[in-house]
Each structure stands twice: as structure tokens, then as C-alpha cells.
Automatic annotation (TrEMBL):
<protein>
    <recommendedName>
        <fullName>protein-glutamine gamma-glutamyltransferase</fullName>
        <ecNumber>2.3.2.13</ecNumber>
    </recommendedName>
</protein>
<dbReference type="InterPro" id="IPR014756">
    <property type="entry name" value="Ig_E-set"/>
</dbReference>
<comment type="similarity">
    <text>Belongs to the transglutaminase superfamily. Transglutaminase family.</text>
</comment>
<dbReference type="Pfam" id="PF00927">
    <property type="entry name" value="Transglut_C"/>
</dbReference>
<dbReference type="InterPro" id="IPR036985">
    <property type="entry name" value="Transglutaminase-like_sf"/>
</dbReference>
<keyword id="KW-0479">Metal-binding</keyword>
<feature type="binding site">
    <location>
        <position position="387"/>
    </location>
    <ligand>
        <name>Ca(2+)</name>
    </ligand>
</feature>
<dbReference type="Pfam" id="PF01841">
    <property type="entry name" value="Transglut_core"/>
</dbReference>
<dbReference type="InterPro" id="IPR036238">
    <property type="entry name" value="Transglutaminase_C_sf"/>
</dbReference>
<feature type="active site">
    <location>
        <position position="322"/>
    </location>
</feature>
<dbReference type="InterPro" id="IPR002931">
    <property type="entry name" value="Transglutaminase-like"/>
</dbReference>
<keyword id="KW-0012">Acyltransferase</keyword>
<dbReference type="InterPro" id="IPR023608">
    <property type="entry name" value="Transglutaminase_animal"/>
</dbReference>
<feature type="active site">
    <location>
        <position position="264"/>
    </location>
</feature>
<dbReference type="InterPro" id="IPR008958">
    <property type="entry name" value="Transglutaminase_C"/>
</dbReference>
<dbReference type="InterPro" id="IPR001102">
    <property type="entry name" value="Transglutaminase_N"/>
</dbReference>
<dbReference type="InterPro" id="IPR013783">
    <property type="entry name" value="Ig-like_fold"/>
</dbReference>
């Protein structure tokens, strides 16, 4: 058999796979040539089958003879050419065929009851280039980015300070396709009923939902175990990964034991790899000030004690950022207006249908407040729209008092990577109408109504009087210098008296290190001050938190929450808070010379220790598709205060074109300093 691997792969946009097996896309013809037949046109029957119990009824088996034209509805074979002892056949699958690994056999009807001869196996994938496919994407440049691009940029930080890092999706590397297929065979659905599961694998809605469950380890021994404690012993810190390949390979190598550890962007990046690999256009989305509404009331409650400590007592939370996925496919279950981008989320936050999975939720349904549509729209709607309530909580009496509420806090700067460029694109307007507009409030009311929240008395909700109360003073934290790891933290608390009589204020301030979900981990600093503000007066209080006070307590997320709870005499309390993400020092990559295929080229990575003490345990981790195989790990000698290090290594690129080199530098004082460089080979 000649599978015409090169020509078929070129026609089917599968050339990037490095496989000896034919990999093609559905709804499109591929050519296969074989010998050992006479007069093929009269008497050949082909059998294509997939799954453990192939059946015509379940559409996991197709039997088809040679016809003169291609069928749109079913598998078909058209004769291309014959010679004395060989025959070339063009085989087409329908655009809604089940995807996965197929066995292809041929039977000669003239020779009586001979059993079919196996021609071998091939893999069938989704086809975003084909207009009949549910995942059809009309713009070619978007197919290139969302299916074929192996490099991505993920946005993180917080709403005041967005930062980003590169990621190697690597969906075409080594045996990633096989790992993705075995992921489907390890799902709960497959274990419960293999034949039915396989027969649903023509549907991107179904596969997206199943894979959102399989990427997390909850319920099904899936790929990644989540950990948000700030302590990552017994595994790798979620911040240390730079690509999905290592995670998926580790999962397979360990006999499919969950890989430790993931946080939201790791779950989202791995799901991107798997879906792009199977041919479903997919991207990562970052939502800043993202709500986790655990009780489904479209409201998140946060509690603070009298000293201003953020109490970790609510199931609800507001994350500095959260990363999920959007995949592109039609929603024939909901109707054409809900087709297009669909939200999928593999981070295990809340159960859906009894297991940790989320989506697909139509992005258009979220924008229009149609939260009654499948799947998990209320949870996703809350992530970008929930109202926030900040409470003062007294642990001794259990009494809670509303400090203030805000409806414009959640769901800001929703971001994704641009098509064909390394830039940020803001997609907030695709998720909701303009914050504060009448339309946006109407949609919020519509969603509350659909969830039955409008008519139900909620004893935990604040009274209208509480919501309408107006504070006597206002406050904010202002930056006074750069927020960088290794430098003292300088802030200014600005308080302003809004009234025309003097006010006395007791200010209790705290700073805690947190993880990016704003979960408090260690107290770093506290202070209190009593202030008198003259009528309409604004006062500034400088705050300095020295590096040596926060250095030990910092998590690998480099995040600190600073809070001032202001008790105003005779008035309501005022909460001032700021989430700070500290920047790591920079590292620099230089490619020394021109990068050419199969030629060595030197790369230099430069890091200068910015602090006044030695840094130890320095390591450099390097990866990049088509530039080097696997991951390069280099130990770097300790660096004295202010010392500059230069680390050199060699690459031998094996493909032409623009490639990305990803570098991650870590030491005992700085975790996971990441950068990437585009290398034109």
C-alpha cells in the first residue's frame, strides 16, 4: 500500500505531524494506491471502521464500493487510475464522520467469500477548512492561528498591570496525537459505554465537554492535578511549565497518573493543545477580576475582619485573573445565532452534571444573558458579570455588615492573542455590553430572572438601605515607585474627606502574600494609624514594605494584597484595597548569528542579579518546537550581588520559518522568570 503521505498531508493541512501513519481531515478526499488486484472497478468493496465495536448503525463502520462521484453524505471511493497490477483510489469521508483512528480493509467481491484484506490504519480529524464541517472557519488566517500554530501567548497579572508569557502548545510533536486519542479512551463516558462514546466523536460539543473533564485529574484520573495552596512539594510548581508537551508526555510515561501541579492557565493551555491537535479551532482567554460564584446567585461575597484581614471564609472568590478556552463550532442544538466561539473550561471549579467539567457555553448566549442554555452558562456569566459585595465580619458574634457593593468590578480586559501577531486583543465587548450601560444592566436583570433570583427572597443579600449608604471618606492606594521583586514596596494611601465637617478615622492596614486567586497565604505586614481629616481635606500616607520583610513570604505568583479598613467615627466603614503583582527582573536572549536548518547556532541568555545578596540554585529551562528536541535544562552557577551571568548553548534547527524559543530562569530568590524570542530559521 502507498498512502501518499506527503501529498495527502499537504492537501489536508497535516504536514506538521511527524507520523509514519496517514493523518487526514474529514469531508475531504485522500488518495491511496495498492497492488494485487485485477479489474478493480467492478469488484472492490472498502470497509472503514473505528472503535471497539464498529457498527453501521452507530456510524463507526462504513462499507462502500467504487462509484463514479463523491458522496456528500457517506463514505465513497472513486477510481483515480489503474495499471497492470496496481490501482489508485480516492477515498472521501462525510463532513460529519466520527474522528479517531480507523482501520481500512478491502474485499474483492468476485472471489467469492474471501475475508477482507487489511490495508492498515489512518487517523481522521476535524476539518475547519471544509464548509460542511461543524468546525468550519471561513478565514484561512484564523485556521492557521487556531489549529496550526504551536506557539501561544497567555495573559496574566491583574487588571492594573497585565503581563504575558509564551507557551509551547506543541500539538504536532512526537506522540501527542496518540496521547490525545488515548485521553478520549480514558474518559468516564468511554469506560461506561465505549461504543456509544465513540459514536458521539463526530460532535465537537461532545468532545469539548469530555476533554474539559479529562484535562483535570478530578473524577477520572485525568491529566493534571490542581493545587492553589502556594506549596507545591511533591510536584512542579504550576508557574514552572513552559509547554504542554512535557505535561502530556509525563502523564503517559507515568502510566496515566495525574501530573502535579496545574493552575488555570496550565489546564487551559493543555486543553488548547488537545483540541488543536484534533482539529477544533481553539484559543486561550484571560479574564481579569474573574468571579468564582460558588452558590449560583450572580453575587460574590468577600469578608474582612476589623483589622482589615481578608478572611478566607467564603466559597465565592474574585481571582486576579482566570484563563479558560474558546473553541469554534456550530451549535445545531441551540440554533445559528449561538454558533461561533464556545467557552470551555478545564479548571476544576464547580461540578457540572456531577463531574468537574465546564462548557461548551455559547459566548453569544453569555452576552445576551441566555443563561438557561446548555452548558454551564450561569457559571460563565457570573465569571464576567457577577456583582461584588464586601462585608465586615465579626468572628466572635458572626455578625456581618456590608461595607460596599460594586457592579462594575468583575470581568475586565478580557484578553487573547492576536491572529498572526504576538499582541493582545481585547474581547470584553464580545462577552458583555458596555459596563454601566442600561443594556448591560437589563441583561443582568434578564439573567437573574431566568435563574429565578428576582422573585426569591435572599436572606443573605444586603438590604437596599445598606446598598444605598454613602461613605464620608474615599481612599485609594497609589504606586510610589516600581513594583519589582527584590525592591522595597513603596505605596501611598490617599484618604479624602468628602464631607464639610472634620472626620476622625481609625485606619487598620495589612499586607498579605497571596496566590493569583487572591487566596491569602502569609501575613507580611500590618500597621494602624489614627487620622483626623479637615473638611474636604486629602491626606497622603506613605507606606514602605522592605524587600526583606516580604521576600520569605512571597508565593511564585509574586502577588500581594494590601488592605486598609477605615473605621470612620459616626459613619460607615471604608475598605481600600489593591492587588499588586510584582515584576520579576528581566532576562535577555540573543541569537548569535543566523539560524539555518541543520546548522549549529549559538544562543546566549543574560541575567543580572539585581539584589544585594547572592542568588543560588539557578537553573535555565529552554524549549522550542523545530529548534530543539525536548527540553534543555542547564545549571547556572550562583551569582553574587549585582553580578551578571551569561549562559551559552547551541541549537540545531530542523525546520524553516519563524520559530519561538522559550526560556525560564529560576533561582532561590526569583521563581520562573520567563521570556521568549522569535527566531527566523
Amino acid at each position: 500500500v502507498n498512502w501518499h503521505l506527503k501529498e495527502n498531508a499537504r492537501d489536508h493541512h497535516t504536514s506538521k505531524f511527524s507520523s509514519k501513519e496517514l493523518i487526514v481531515r474529514r469531508g475531504q478526499a485522500f488518495v491511496v494506491t495498492f497492488n494485487g488486484t485485477e479489474k478493480p472497478e467492478q469488484n472492490l468493496t472498502f470497509i472503514a471502521e473505528t472503535g471497539p465495536k464498529p457498527s453501521k448503525l452507530a456510524k463507526t463502520q462504513a462499507t462502500f464500493g467504487i462509484s463514479s462521484t463523491v458522496s456528500k453524505e457517506s463514505w465513497s471511493a472513486v477510481l483515480q487510475s489503474t495499471s497492470s497490477n496496481s490501482v489508485s483510489i480516492s477515498i472521501s469521508s462525510p463532513p460529519n464522520a466520527v474522528i479517531g483512528r480507523y482501520k481500512l480493509s478491502v474485499q474483492s467481491t468476485s472471489s467469492g467469500s474471501s475475508s477482507p484484506a487489511s490495508l492498515g490504519t489512518f487517523v481522521l480529524l476535524f476539518n475547519p477548512w471544509s464548509s460542511g464541517d461543524d468546525v468550519f472557519m471561513p478565514k484561512k488566517a484564523e485556521c492557521e492561528e487556531y489549529v496550526l500554530e504551536e506557539f501561544g501567548i497567555i495573559f496574566a497579572g491583574n487588571k492594573n498591570h497585565i503581563n504575558s508569557f509564551g507557551w509551547n502548545f506543541g500539538q504536532f510533536q512526537g506522540d501527542i496525537l496518540d496521547i490525545c486519542l488515548s485521553m478520549l479512551d480514558r474518559s468516564l463516558n468511554y469506560r461506561q459505554d465505549p461504543s456509544t462514546d465513540v459514536s458521539h466523536r463526530n460532535d465537537p460539543k461532545y468532545l469539548g465537554r469530555v476533554l474539559s473533564a479529562m484535562v483535570n485529574a478530578n473524577d477520572d484520573q485525568g491529566v493534571l492535578l490542581g493545587n492553589w495552596s502556594g506549596n507545591y512539594e511533591g510536584g512542579k510548581s504550576p508557574n514552572s511549565w513552559t509547554g504542554s508537551g512535557e505535561i502530556l508526555q509525563n502523564w503517559k510515561k507515568s502510566g496515566f497518573k495525574p501530573v502535579r501541579y496545574g493552575q488555570c492557565w496550565v489546564f487551559a493551555a493543555v486543553l488548547t493543545t488537545v483540541l488543536r491537535c484534533l482539529g477544533i479551532p481553539t484559543r486561550t482567554i484571560t479574564n481579569f477580576s474573574s468571579a468564582h460564584d460558588a452558590d449560583g446567585n450572580l453575587r460574590v461575597d468577600e469578608f474582612y475582619d476589623a483589622s482589615g484581614n481578608h478572611l478566607d471564609r467564603a466559597a465565592d472568590s474574585i481571582w486576579n485573573f482566570h484563563v479558560w478556552n474558546e473553541s469554534w463550532f456550530s451549535r445545531n442544538d441551540l440554533g445559528p445565532s449561538y454558533s461561533g466561539w464556545q467557552v470551555l473550561d478545564a479548571t476544576p471549579q464547580e461540578e457540572s452534571g456531577g463531574i468537574y467539567q465546564c462548557g461548551p457555553a455559547s459566548r453569544n448566549a453569555i452576552k445576551e444573558g441566555d443563561v438557561d442554555l446548555d452548558y454551564d452558562c450561569p457559571f460563565v456569566f457570573a465569571e464576567v458579570n457577577a456583582d461584588c459585595m464586601y462585608w465586615n465580619y465579626d468572628p466572635t458574634t458572626g455578625k456581618k455588615t456590608l461595607i460596599f457593593s460594586k457592579s462594575t468590578e468583575i470581568g475586565q480586559f478580557i484578553s487573547t492573542k492576536a491572529v498572526g501577531r504576538d499582541d493582545r486583543v481585547d474581547v470584553t465587548n464580545d462577552y458583555k455590553y458596555e459596563e454601566g450601560s442600561t443594556k448591560e444592566r437589563d441583561i443582568f436583570k434578564k439573567a437573574r430572572k431566568k435563574l429565578g433570583l428576582e422573585d426569591k427572597f435572599d436572606p443573605t443579600a444586603p438590604t437596599p438601605e445598606e446598598i444605598d449608604q454613602r461613605p464620608d471618606i474615599s481612599g485609594r492606594f497609589k504606586m510610589a515607585g516600581p513594583f519589582e521583586v527584590g525592591k522595597d514596596l513603596n505605596l501611598i494611601l490617599v484618604l479624602e474627606n468628602l464631607q464639610s465637617d472634620a472626620k476622625t478615622v481609625q485606619v487598620n492596614m495589612t499586607a498579605w502574600s497571596t496566590v493569583y486567586t487572591r487566596k491569602p497565604v502569609h501575613e507580611i505586614w500590618k500597621d494602624s494609624v489614627s487620622v483626623t481629616l479637615s473638611p474636604k481635606e486629602e491626606k497622603q500616607f506613605p507606606i514602605k514594605i522592605p524587600y526583606n520583610e516580604y521576600q520569605q513570604q512571597l508565593t511564585t505568583d509574586n502577588t500581594i494584597q494590601v488592605t486598609a479598613l477605615c473605621h470612620v467615627e459616626g459613619g460607615i466603614q471604608v475598605l481600600v484595597q489593591r492587588d499588586i503583582t510584582l515584576d520579576n527582573p528581566a532576562i535577555d536572549i540573543q541569537v548569535l548569528g543566523e539560524a539555518k536548518v541543520n546548522k549549529e547556532v549559538d544562543v546566549e541568555v543574560i541575567f543580572t542579579n539585581p539584589i544585594d545578596r547572592e542568588v543560588m540554585d539557578c537553573t535555565l529551562q529552554v524549549e522550542g518546537n523545530d529548534l530543539l528536541r525536548g527540553i534543555l535544562e542547564i545549571d547556572v552557577p550562583p551569582l553574587k550581588a549585582g553580578e551578571k551571568s551569561s549562559t551559552k548553548f547551541k541549537l540545531i534547527p530542523f525546520e524553516t520559518g519563524p520559530k519561538h524559543l522559550l526560556v525560564n530562569f529560576s533561582c532561590d530568590k526569583f521563581a520562573d522568570i520567563k521570556t521568549f524570542k522569535m527566531v527566523n530559521v
